[in-house]
Design a protein that fits this description.
Strand order of the largest sheet: 3-13-12-10-9-8-7-4
Bound molecules: flavin mononucleotide
Order of helices and strands: HHHEEEHEEEHEHEHEHEHEHEHEHH
Radius of gyration: 19 Å
Distance between the termini: 37 Å
CATH topology: TIM Barrel
Number of helices: 13
Number of domains: 1
CATH superfamily: Aldolase class I
Structural class: alpha/beta
Largest sheet: 8 strands, parallel
Shape: globular
CATH architecture: Alpha-Beta Barrel
Strand content: 15-25%
């Protein structure tokens, strides 16, 4: 009987969602970072090596396609234990130049019947400088730096915030993500508009190109963009020759949920993640792949709970996958199980991985 899904999760899910997040992260940080505990985590949860799931992207060897999405380990405190749980890469952040507390609590909610979460965390993080000592010790684990702006920074100064985070993190991460799609920082998503977006990308690219070894830069977009807005983004991405896109962040849409209208109204504002965002995110991946052609890397995220969900996104044109909510609902065996399913699917001919990069 799956211990996490049948016993641990139902117990944890009786408690406040953010409180549980802090318990789990404290346990991982304090209890599972030493050598003995690392050995245990690896032994029990690390997936097998699947040669057919490996890829080489940006000259980096990915053991398999599934990484951890931004927001779970904002301050880079859990890189090692999360890697021991099998994620092939970890995205830290969103980090901002200055530490900020985020929105008032409660700000994280479960919609169990929808296998979803609603959050309005608001970029709570310890500030970019705080994570650096820890990042210096990350070893060869692949880490992405997801960066944003402080709440108090007006949009016409936003570029400076991204630049500060980029410069501070540059030596310590393997790729960058410009997050312009969180619904929880007022006005942030306006940075997805053509002109501010072009200015943001080109400024960060200039700083990147002045380095001896520029790093891949990706843009993280919202699932709520219209076709018209997506076309604008495609145009800017092509103009700037950006390395890739992460599709998608959480949605502000509340349609088609099982949870009662009263419950949803009581929760209020925030970004919805998990199952309900899966199809929209896959649709966007497909649209972007058609428009962008084969070159830019697309990281597909939104409602991945198992190997089949990951395969759907790879089929739609993603090169890598990330998950957050699926990990919360499925537990520590999430990666091990998903990879088993993916490998079985490949071996039994249920799917072929056409866009694999080797
Ligand atoms: C509690 C929570 C906090 C999040 N924080 C961030 C964040 O700081 N930056 C970001 O780019 N995405 C953040 N996300 C969005 C996730 O990275 C991901 O894009 C989204 O949840 C969809 O994936 P999922 O359905 O697998 O959760 C957060 C999601 C959740 C649930």
């Amino acid at each position: 009987m799956p211990l996490y899904k049948n016993i641990i999760a139902p117990l944890l899910f009786t408690q406040d969602a953010e409180k549980v997040h802090h318990w789990i992260t404290a346990l991982l940080e304090k209890g599972f970072s030493n050598a003995l505990a690392s050995f245990f985590l690896k032994k029990v949860y690390s997936p097998k090596v699947y040669p057919d799931l490996k890829q080489k992207i940006w000259g980096i060897d990915f053991q398999h396609p599934i990484g951890l999405a931004a927001g779970f380990d904002k301050d880079a405190k859990l890189i090692k234990p999360l890697s021991n749980l099998g994620f092939s890469f970890i995205e830290i952040g969103t980090l901002t130049p200055v530490a900020q507390p985020g929105n008032e609590r409660p700000r994280l909610f479960r919609l169990k019947d929808d296998q979803a979460l609603i959050n309005r965390m608001g970029f709570n993080n310890g500030g970019v400088a705080d994570s650096i000592e820890r990042l210096k010790k990350k070893g060869n684990i692949i880490v992405g730096g997801n960066i944003g702006k402080n709440k108090v920074t007006p949009n016409d100064k936003a570029v400076e915030d991204y630049l500060k985070c980029f410069n501070a993190l540059y030596p310590y991460v393997d790729y960058f993500v410009l997050n312009v799609s969180s619904p929880n920082t007022p006005g942030l998503r306006a940075l997805q508009d053509k002109e501010p977006l072009r200015e943001l990308i080109q400024t960060v690219q200039k700083a990147n190109n002045s380095q001896s070894k520029p790093k891949p830069i990706l843009l993280k977009i919202a699932p709520d963009l219209s076709t018209f807005e997506l076309d604008d983004i495609v145009e800017v991405l092509q103009l700037c020759r950006l390395d890739g896109v992460i599709a998608t962040n959480t949605t502000v849409d509340r349609s088609g949920l099982t949870a009662s209208k009263q419950k949803i109204d009581t929760i209020g504002l925030g970004g919805l993640s998990g199952r309900p965002v899966a199809n929209r995110s896959t649709e966007i991946i497909k649209y972007l792949r058609e428009k962008l052609g084969p070159e830019p890397i697309i990281i597909g995220v939104g409602g991945v709970f198992n190997g089949r969900d990951a395969i759907q996104k790879l089929h739609a044109g993603a090169n890598l996958i990330q998950a957050y909510t699926g990990f919360i609902y499925e537990g520590p065996k999430f990666i091990k199980k998903a990879l088993q399913e993916m490998d079985y699917g490949l071996k039994s001919g249920h799917w072929t991985w056409k866009n694999r990069r080797i």
